[in-house]
């Protein structure tokens, strides 16, 4: 078998088969490598380049410059940061002639076919290097069109965040693009000043001279009599004497001032003001409400803070890249009567209704129109959160940056593993970390809906918001409901309702009701995947448990019977990975992890099904058939092969962990006709994992990367290689360890009771 490390480096060498010690190291290594880092907030100009619903940046320059002469050229530029070497597939769709340079190297020059064929898409591989990487697009105007669409393949999964080049825009998100010019220009230094370039770059970052003469609120919103807006800053009080802080300045109309959650001043008339307030040492939230009065020539205020003769600094309430010289956030304009709750202001996980009488929130399905978010005193510039913790690629390596805060299906398994391991070890720090990972996503859900409507494609929670497949919601949604027992987070249930509606009412089905993937125009068009039993049924089980809606549990049970009809391979008693409806046949390739998902999910359904449920006897029989088939194919090492019935394929760790998990649960819950063989198989699998797949630092090896599908075993063996610390395997290792430990405890307790009963009767 493949050797990932020498014997002394194995977890078995250090701890033997001690599940609790192994779980401790696995969980602590993962948490240590994935710190609780929040989203990155950046300045973003809405008048710049936006993404479409596929995640491609739409550089349609024909719309931006409708009067541009034929053969004029425009440029677009961006920076991409690399934490490490990684490969990324990008897509280009041409409106006209395009040249794409990456790190000053010509990667692509469009052909006439690319330029005139509707929706023609070119896929290109780029190698992102550590540090700054430059993107440079040269686009020529022709009668056919002007510009292109550009972005990563599968943009909601492989996120491509681009940052603005040039020193003046440092830290801002988004592209810059130039006004058309008559002749080609050389690429300037994108890390230098934009003034060194001969091109006029857009969007504009500074107000015009006439706008600069206006107050901040007037130039941001215009004159809007009867409306009001809020401004939020942080007062940094460095005075240690306890003296009061003096707030002074000028107002163009009525203002109200809060320090923290306390109203400290109400100024009714325009003019100068001065008030003294009590402020604690350090940072204090300062909020100002300003009204625009009818007939007023302006609205807004100027405010300074001081203690004695010393001025105090006003700072942004949250670090925003690209806005370090700013000190105020602004939200508005609000109609009279549209008053956000004070408790909902001075935070970044809310959007605010601006219309009086508007009811509901985006979380419950109401349109995001008539809502707003915090912005800066710059043209069309909003604050925008970005998920930048992990720059996803086709390959993961040890030391990849943190996954914290990402909604993604492999991380759903990881979160579930952390929850179960933490509970088993009575480690509330571990369960709290897992629950807070979920909360970091769900608390920004309403914002994410607004972000998509505002900018075309969300900057966070991409898979949840662009909900099109079971992969996007089922796994992490299941982990979300599992963590509901740890924290009654109010955002969980509305999101669960949306996912349940998608699965039960809107998901594609065959005529018999079986879930499948339409994926029109894609490689997976008209297919059914064994993986989707995991992407759906554990969520449905937990949704039924939390809400009491038994029809969700009935649907989960029904799907197993349907999938068996299409994918079961009776000669081996295992499952084909995929059924391809285009060819009206299963691939007959039993991929290990696809089978692991099947068994894993079946145990979740069986645990929840009532004893008298109509589907239960058939599913118990199915469970026994599958386990018999899997047990027969276990290797001498305790692991299973990547393609289960092809012994020449490599031994794979994630499916091994799932089979151990399923066997152990079958023993503990009494589902086996003869459990003894499966006790041994589960223990052998666990020993194989700690000997061959988990090293003594808690790194997980031998886990297959994410899969597509094929009709040959060679694809799974040669194209899908193993990845260290892949999230498809870390969580399931913890789940396997907890279940084997629970199985052994169950058997020990049962034996002890039997012995005690025998002694008593004697």
From TrEMBL:
InterPro entries: 6-hairpin_glycosidase_sf, 6hp_glycosidase-like_sf, Glyco_hydro_88, PolySaccharide_Degr_Enz. One of its GO terms (molecular function) is hydrolase activity. Gene3D superfamilies: 1.50.10.10. Signal peptide: none annotated. Keywords: Hydrolase. Pfam families: Glyco_hydro_88 (PF07470). PANTHER family: UNSATURATED RHAMNOGALACTURONAN HYDROLASE (EUROFUNG) (PTHR33886). This is Glycoside hydrolase family 88 protein. It comes from Paenibacillus cucumis (ex Kampfer et al. 2016).
């Amino acid at each position: 078998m493949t050797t990932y490390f020498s014997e002394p480096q194995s977890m078995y060498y250090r701890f033997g088969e001690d599940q609790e010690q192994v779980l401790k190291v696995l969980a602590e290594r993962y948490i240590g490598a994935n710190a609780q880092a929040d989203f990155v907030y950046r300045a973003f100009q809405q008048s710049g380049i936006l993404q479409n619903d596929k995640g491609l940046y739409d550089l349609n320059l024909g719309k931006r410059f409708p009067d541009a002469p034929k053969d004029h050229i425009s440029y677009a530029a961006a920076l991409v940061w690399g934490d490490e070497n990684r490969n990324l597939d990008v897509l280009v769709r041409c409106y006209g002639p395009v040249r794409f340079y990456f790190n000053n190297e010509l990667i692509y020059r469009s052909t006439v076919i690319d330029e005139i064929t509707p929706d023609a898409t070119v896929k290109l591989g780029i190698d992102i290097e550590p540090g700054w990487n430059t993107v440079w697009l040269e686009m020529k105007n022709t009668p056919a069109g002007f510009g292109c669409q550009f972005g990563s393949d599968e943009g909601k999964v492989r996120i491509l965040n681009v940052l603005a080049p040039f020193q003046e825009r440092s830290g801002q998100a988004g592209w810059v693009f130039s006004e058309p010019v008559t002749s080609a220009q050389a690429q300037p230094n994108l890390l230098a000043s934009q003034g060194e370039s001969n091109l006029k770059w857009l969007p504009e970052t500074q107000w015009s001279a006439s706008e600069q003469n206006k107050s901040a609120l007037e130039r941001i919103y215009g004159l809007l009599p009867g409306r009001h807006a809020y401004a939020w800053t942080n007062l940094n009080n460095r005075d240690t004497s306890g003296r009061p802080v003096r707030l002074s300045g000028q107002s163009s109309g009525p203002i109200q001032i809060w320090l923290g959650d306390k109203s400290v001043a109400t100024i009714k008339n325009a003019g100068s003001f001065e008030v003294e307030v009590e402020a604690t040492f350090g940072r204090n939230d300062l909020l100002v409400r300003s009204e625009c009065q009818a007939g007023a020539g302006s609205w807004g205020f100027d405010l300074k803070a001081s203690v004695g003769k010393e001025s105090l600094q006003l700072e942004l309430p949250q670090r925003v890249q690209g806005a370090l010289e700013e000190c105020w956030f602004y939200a508005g304009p609000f109609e009279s009567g549209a008053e956000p709750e004070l408790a909902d202001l001075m935070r970044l996980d809310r959007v605010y209704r601006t219309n009086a009488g508007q009811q509901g929130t985006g979380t419950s399905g109401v349109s995001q129109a008539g809502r707003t978010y915090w912005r800066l005193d710059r043209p069309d510039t909003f604050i925008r959160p970005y998920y930048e913790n992990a720059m996803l690629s086709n390959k993961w390596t040890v030391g990849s940056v943190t996954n914290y805060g990402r909604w993604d299906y492999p991380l759903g398994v990881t979160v579930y593993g952390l929850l179960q391991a933490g509970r088993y070890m009575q480690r509330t720090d571990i369960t709290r970390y897992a629950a807070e990972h979920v909360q970091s996503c769900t608390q920004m859900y309403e914002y994410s809906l607004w972000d998509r409507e505002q900018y075309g494609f969300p900057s966070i929670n991409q898979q949840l918001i662009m909900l099109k497949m079971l992969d996007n919601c089922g796994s992490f949604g299941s982990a979300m409901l599992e963590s509901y027992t740890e924290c009654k987070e109010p955002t969980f249930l509305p999101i669960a309702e949306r996912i349940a509606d998608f699965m039960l009412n809107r998901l594609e089905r065959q005529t018999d009701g079986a879930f499948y993937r339409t994926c029109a125009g894609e490689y997976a068009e008209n297919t059914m995947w064994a993986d989707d039993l995991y992407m759906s049924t554990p969520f449905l089980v937990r949704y039924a448990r939390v809400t009491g809606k038994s029809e969700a549990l009935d649907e989960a049970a029904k799907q197993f019977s349907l999938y068996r009809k299409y994918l079961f391979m009776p000669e081996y008693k295992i499952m084909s990975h995929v059924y391809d409806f285009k060819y009206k046949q299963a691939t007959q390739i039993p991929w290990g992890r696809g089978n692991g998902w099947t068994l894993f999910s079946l145990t979740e359904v069986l645990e929840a099904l009532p004893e008298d449920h109509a589907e239960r006897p058939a599913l118990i029989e199915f469970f026994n058939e599958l386990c018999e088939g899997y047990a027969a194919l276990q290797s001498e090492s305790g692991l299973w092969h990547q393609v289960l019935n092809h012994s020449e394929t490599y031994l794979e760790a994630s499916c091994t962990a799932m089979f151990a998990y399923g066997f152990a649960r079958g023993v503990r819950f009494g589902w086996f006709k003869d459990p003894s063989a499966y006790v041994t198989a589960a223990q052998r699998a666990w020993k194989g994992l700690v000997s061959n797949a988990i090293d003594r630092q808690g790194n997980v090896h031998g886990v297959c990367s994410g899969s597509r599908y094929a009709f040959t075993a060679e694809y799974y063996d040669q194209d899908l290689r193993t990845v260290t610390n892949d999230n498809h395997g870390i969580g399931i290792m913890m789940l396997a360890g907890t279940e084997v430990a629970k199985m052994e405890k169950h058997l020990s307790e049962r034996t002890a009771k039997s012995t005690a009963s025998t002694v008593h009767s004697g």
